[in-house]
Amino acid sequence: MTTQRDLDMVHLRLILVSGKTQDFTFSPNDSATDIAKHVFENWPAGWEEERVSSPSILRLIFQGRFLHGNVTLGALKLPAGRTTVMHLVARETLPEPNSHGQRNREKTTESNCCLLL
Predict the structure, then answer these.
(1) d(CA 43, CA 88)
(2) Which of 13, 46, 51, 115 has the fewest CB atoms within 10 Å around its CB?
(3) Rounded CA gap, 5 and 44, in Å?
(4) With a cut of 70, which residues of the chain have pLDDT below it?
(5) Dist. CA 117–CA 102, nearest whole Å
(6) Do the beta carbons of residue 89 and residue 17 sit within 8 Å?
């Protein structure tokens, strides 16, 4: 029997760079940091070759953007009861939330061409 709590849970399918996937279920209140810690502590058997040394380097990518540690699944307004796909990568640091746009503005005076000899 399905309970209301089950319906409120968020189902994630995490994909590694290698293409391996695993499904997990989380609360809408779980943050990206909570998810990384849970995955690290419950590392799937089929992912042994991709095991990382610490949960702090696991990063989630959703719709092409890195999720910063305090972002909750609820804040993303993910559909409850459906499976949402996210990428899981190992990366030491994250770009600042709006640094990409700022970097592009700063480069407007620079040349982005290269010379091939």
Answers:
(1) 12
(2) 115
(3) 24
(4) 1-7, 94-117
(5) 32
(6) yes
